[in-house]
Amino acid sequence: MNKTHNIAVFASGSGTNLQAIIDACEDGSIPAHLRVVITDNRDAKACERARAHNIDLSVHIKQDYDSKEKFEESIIDTLKKYDIDLICLAGYMRIVGKTLLRSYPNRILNIHPSLLPAFPGRDAQRQALEHGVKFSGCTVHIVDEKVDHGPIILQSAVPVHDDDTVETLKKRILAEEHKIYPKAISLFLEKCLHIDGRRVRIKKI
Ligand code: GRF
To answer: Whose CA is nearest to atom 8 of ligand 1?
Structure first.
């Protein structure tokens, strides 16, 4: 029998992507058990969402540790306890460091609210509006040592309208995020992804 996949979600904010992942685990469209939510913000709405679904929550605050290495080692101890196969960053506001990356090579995914490589970093929707692009969207990618940079698994595009504000564009993009993130996680866990350098080929859907 196949071993159950165990996943962890890292979240710092409102946690709407976390919610999409919880729902997909519960309805079976992600073939995994969401064992733990890791957060650096105990007041995040994401924490409420985890509690509401009886998912363990583990709070790790960088300032409580002497170094980033020690901070990440404590996260790794938690992940090992839950036998985690895959980490999904979902609005996690910290840059993943070498310690965590080395322990989970090619096993950390992230979602970003732009069509990478355009507009990495913070305020991607504002960057897109200010640049005047006609389309933006979202990207699920594998995390590597550079911010919002690793191999791309899935993207979804949305139009940018003349009367868009950051908020209206955010909302349109978020709706797509909630579709492609669970899908990318399933593809990963079902071993449908072939990673060849920067290119990720999808073997079957
Ligand atoms: C999303 O736009 C995601 O792409 C970005 O941070 C935001 C998190 O939103 N990385 P939420 O906390 O999932 O609602």
So the answer is: 91
Q: Tell me the pTM.
A: 0.96
Q: Distance between CA atoms of 159 and 18, rounded to whole angstroms?
A: 24
Compute the distance between CA of residue 108 and CA of residue 121 in angstroms, rounded to an integer.
Answer: 17
Check pocket membership of 177 for ligand 1, CB cut-off 6 A. yes
Q: How many CB atoms lie within 10 A of CB 145?
A: 12
Active site residue 194: no
Q: How confident is the model at residue 4 (pLDDT cuts 50, 70, 90)?
A: confident
Give 15 Cα–ligand 1 centroid separation in angstroms: 7
Tens digits of per-residue pLDDT, 131-186?
A: 999 999 999 999 999 999 999 999 999 999 999 999 999 999 999 999 999 999 99
Burial 153-179 (b: 16+ CB within 10 A, else e): bbbbebebeeebeeeebbebbbebbbe
From the candidates 112, 131, 149, 161, give the one annotated as an active-site residue.
112
Q: Which of 16, 87, 127 to mutate to test ligand 1, by most ligand atoms within 8 A of the CB atom?
A: 16
Among residues 140, 159, 160, which one has the least CA distance to residue 151? Answer: 140
